[in-house]
Amino acid sequence: RTRVIVIANQKGGVGKTTTAINLGTALAAVGKSVLVMDIDPQGNASTGLGISKEQRATTVYEVIIGHAALEDSIVASAIPGLHVVPATPDLSGAEMELVGVPRRSFRLRDALNAYIAKTELGKSSGKDLVKAEAVLQPYDFILIDCPPSLNLLTINAMTASHGLLVPLQCEFFALEGLSQLLRTIDLVRGSLNPQLEIQGVVLTMFDKRNNLSDQVADDVRKHLGDKVYQTVIPRNVKVSEAPSHGLPALLYDYKCAGSQAYIKLAGELIQREKAL
Amino acid sequence: RTRVIVIANQKGGVGKTTTAINLGTALAAVGKSVLVMDIDPQGNASTGLGISKEQRATTVYEVIIGHAALEDSIVASAIPGLHVVPATPDLSGAEMELVGVPRRSFRLRDALNAYIAKTELGKSSGKDLVKAEAVLQPYDFILIDCPPSLNLLTINAMTASHGLLVPLQCEFFALEGLSQLLRTIDLVRGSLNPQLEIQGVVLTMFDKRNNLSDQVADDVRKHLGDKVYQTVIPRNVKVSEAPSHGLPALLYDYKCAGSQAYIKLAGELIQREKAL
Ligand SMILES: Nc1ncnc2c1ncn2[C@@H]1O[C@H](COP(=O)(O)OP(=O)(O)OP(=O)(O)O)[C@@H](O)[C@H]1O
Ligand SMILES: Nc1ncnc2c1ncn2[C@@H]1O[C@H](COP(=O)(O)OP(=O)(O)OP(=O)(O)O)[C@@H](O)[C@H]1O
Ligand SMILES: [Mg+2]
Ligand SMILES: [Mg+2]
What we know:
Two copies of one chain form a homodimer.
Chain A: E1 3-7, H1 16-29, E2 34-38, H2 44-48, H3 60-65, H4 70-73, E3 75-76, E4 82-85, H5 94-97, H6 107-124, H7 131-134, E5 141-145, H8 152-159, E6 163-169, H9 172-176, H10 178-191, E7 197-204, H11 211-224, H12 237-241, H13 249-252, H14 257-275
Parallel strand pairs in A: 1-5, 1-6, 2-4, 2-5, 6-7
Antiparallel strand pairs in A: 3-4
Helix pairs in contact in A: 1-14
């Protein structure tokens, strides 16, 4: 019932965080229960969803290093139906701290599976669970926002996921990194997570005034065919203004082209998931 | 005589590679001898400077892991006065391979110092050096392009450098990461490289149609004062088109606003260096 989708691309600045925030919000807006998990030490997804520094006492760092259960790190956002596992810069120490630790690539998956098992339990034994159990809400979607790197944090997220959503900026350098990303997915599928599929590729920051955008879009569709979403996210200044107000674009300016594109993307994603 | 400048910012997509390529080219255009060192496994700086896959047989990976001297990895670019140490995806394995190795943060510095010492040697003993020594050219500037992360590769580059040049995209998320970057610089200065200074901050992808750019620019100048270059790099489509032709913007379209801004930046950088 819970679909876990990792949003990853080692190329920097391609719209991973913006997609996690706004796709998450659009899914919540149509009634899905969503958890956005921020595993980037920059903590941009946490900030863009209005999570204050004080609310980040327990983050995915504590979950991965082993001190906390997933539910200890979950905070509600101002968006109905959307919860967040926040991140802080402490997370950048996780990779070195896990060197030599057994099953270090599976820490996130183990924590997620424990959480999902508890929510299943909650279902079967009705409402008489103790408080801690009772708030264990099953999510329809868990979206994991990754740092711009194929490091242990990103590998943990890929190992814990059913599908990978790749935001692809319509620029030349972003295209160059795609083959390295596809190789990494094959490696993860071969050794850590055989079920990992490319859920989709979404073209971001498309600028209709710029030929390069069209060229990149044509190139990607030629190579990856149906994996590429029909919905294209346009470059739209409201999208980049929204995070400074701690709001997703959908709440900052619902009518803008960026918000409307993310709403369409959510609709298309739900269609794809139904077809599975 | 050789100034080593690391171009770093863990925020992705802020213009690190574009700055390394075009600032490097502009410095070469005014007669400086320049080495651009690509330590990002994505290899974007190598591609943007027209270095083919075949020319990347020896990269900074071999230099850092210890098998090759720096001069073994240097290739000439099509730009007079500009050489490149290229990168390939192999580089992403370096961090894990160096775990437990002594002085792992100093590998790049040791390699650079060995190279610079040889060029000094070349100076003192005249032209009668053997072929290998004779090509050891002293550079005026070595620019190191980093991946979007504060990992061991970036720490190596910071440890090997005199100054840090921070490209800062005029966007909210890019501003959020600045304090984490400044903390890391203090850590490196405290333990690995006391001489590391912030050489400057350069505002990139400035869009005069967008209030956000002005707000970010004002905010940064308020916090960092004179460290921020007067020259601002505008968002300019020619700059993002140039890499698909394997050319720096200065060779792709010399007259465009992006190229002219990088030429001005080079001039301002040389002024700052003279004042030291
Ligand atoms: N559709 C869009 N239109 C305009 N600006 C956008 C759009 N999508 C993202 N941005 C802006 O571009 C910048 C990069 O986007 P974002 O931070 O989401 O990318 P990222 O891949 O998460 O970056 P990183 O690699 O650092 O994690 C941000 O400043 C963001 O606000
Ligand atoms: N002044 C500019 N105007 C327009 N586009 C630009 C400009 N500077 C950079 N770009 C484009 O923006 C994208 C990001 O720039 P670039 O790749 O140089 O950033 P980066 O910081 O090196 O990214 P990464 O974090 O992945 O290493 C690239 O596609 C580049 O072509
Ligand atoms: Mg991000
Ligand atoms: Mg780069």
